[in-house]
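Board work, copied verbatim: Carbohydrate-binding protein SusD
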Amino acid sequence: MQRYITILYHLLFAGLLLTGFTACNKLLEVPPPPNELGIDQAFGDSASAVAAVSGIYNQMGSNGYFQCGGLSFFTARSADDVICRQILDYFALDSLLYTDTEIDYMWDEGFTCLLTANTCIRALQSTTRLSTPLQHQLLGETLFCRAFINFLLVNIWGDAVPLVTTPDLQANRNAKSVPRQQVYDQILADLLQARELLTNAYPGKSRARPNRMAANALLARVYLYQNRYADAIDQATSVIASNLYLPLPTPVSAFLKDSPEAIWQLMPSVGSGVSGAVADVVLYQRSATSLTPQLLAAFEPGDLRRQAWVVNNVFSGSTYTTANKYKDKGATGNTNPTEYYIIFRLAEQYLIRAEAHVRLGETQAAIDDLNVVRARAGLPALLTTLTQQECMSAVEHERQVELFSEWGHRWLDLRRWPGINNPNITRADEVLGAIKRDWQPTDQWYPVPRSELQANQFLVQNPGYPIK
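↓ predict structure ↓
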């Protein structure tokens, strides 16, 4: 109990989180606090309330296995983006175990971050000590963050995920796994409310805290994943038509902290003892990591993304062709990084809208959007005579070479798309089944950690993994 109170006070009064908490303490095993007096006090004035909500972003920026780098890195290996050459890569082999440390930490960090958001939401809903505009802004931010965290959780663990909407740890200890549509319903409810509370203006000098367009960007993605294509088009159009993110910058500068393409981004850890570099720099350029032959072969000749976002990197005497979207390697004590970790960016909105148009049979509108992304890459426009299936193949191609190694896009795309040759299976079964020797359809969901199953009898395991 005392450990929980110490961590909670550290969050609420300093706006920071103990990064070790996410890796060593189980969300559902920590006893609840005796009361919420400290929470009420922490949201009693504007400075402490902003600091408390900022703790969510600090936590995301330090979650090395879930948000900050890890999720992108693990899912890129599960798909056909990346492979680590000097280890037995269980992610690339899709032979994960429910005892794997990485899986345990991913789950732990995700639900710990969810607890933080729930704590802030409850306090912001009940406080009467903040101005209405500030209360709306902060509540909109935290609802958006909860939706984003739940989106990641449900797309990694599917129907095994519990729906956690309260900071009450006693209730969460026995939270049940629910059908993923219930999680999506909560995501949509949170985003629709967040959109009404937020404005187009970014709080602060950067885009490190979300605005209304960030909520619309995530809504567009959620609607696409839910096959609500007209709604996806509406939300993506609202982001594009806002003119806040135009024009698309050249690939070489797309990931700078001042990039006009960035809709929402996280500031990397800076200051004494840390480098100020985005985690991807370490994960891809300081390891024996290669982009797969399948991804490298997907780039068309002359694609500027291939030139700007791929590099030959020497590590331990060997050369690896790896991701180079982030280039600022940082320096100890750096307090002014040139790159922030981009979570949502404008190119994805064009690709969301293009895919939704294709699904509705509106191929010309889809081609127009694809050509915006291709023009930025220095590629010729697509022919206007493409069939609907050819247009969908073009969407898949552009998403592969535009969004590789980012936030699990390729992994989630392959899993959500039906097969081309057999619509009764997924595109993951077709693509990954052809290149991965031991591929099984059940590999499309990660296992629930054994420690969580042992701590909570109401959790279910995903098919294909042990249940005890």
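Residues 107 and 260 are 33 Å apart (CA to CA).
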